[in-house]
């Protein structure tokens, strides 16, 4: 089992310019949960986001921000790390 700290990311569509920097960062560094839709806005597959914050770092306009609340997850099985993680079953989420 593992305990991982993570953050919830907030997406502000009005700030997004559709450059795809966050999508590329997620594809390269994290879990590939972001994609650009037909309107050049970002779609996020929320089930698989590990809360690493690569999208926040990559975004030039601040369209992605971290929510101030910190989360911790207890997972069973899976594999952690930013390159090709395999999420285990979430056993418990808690907030500090």
Automatic annotation (TrEMBL):
GO terms for molecular function: iron-sulfur cluster binding; metal ion binding. Residues 7-36, 38-69 form the 4Fe-4S ferredoxin-type domain. Keywords: Iron, Iron-sulfur, Metal-binding. It comes from the Bacteria. Signal peptide: none annotated. This is 4Fe-4S binding protein.
């Amino acid at each position: 089992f593992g305990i991982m700290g993570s953050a919830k990311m907030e997406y502000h569509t009005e700030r997004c310019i559709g450059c795809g920097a966050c999508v590329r960062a997620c594809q390269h560094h994290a879990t590939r949960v972001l994609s650009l839709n037909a309107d050049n806005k970002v779609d996020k597959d929320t089930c698989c986001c590990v809360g690493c914050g690569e999208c926040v770092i990559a975004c030039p306009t601040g369209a992605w921000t971290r929510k101030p609340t910190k989360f911790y997850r207890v997972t069973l099985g899976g594999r952690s790390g930013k390159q090709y993680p395999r999420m285990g079953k979430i056993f418990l989420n808690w907030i500090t």
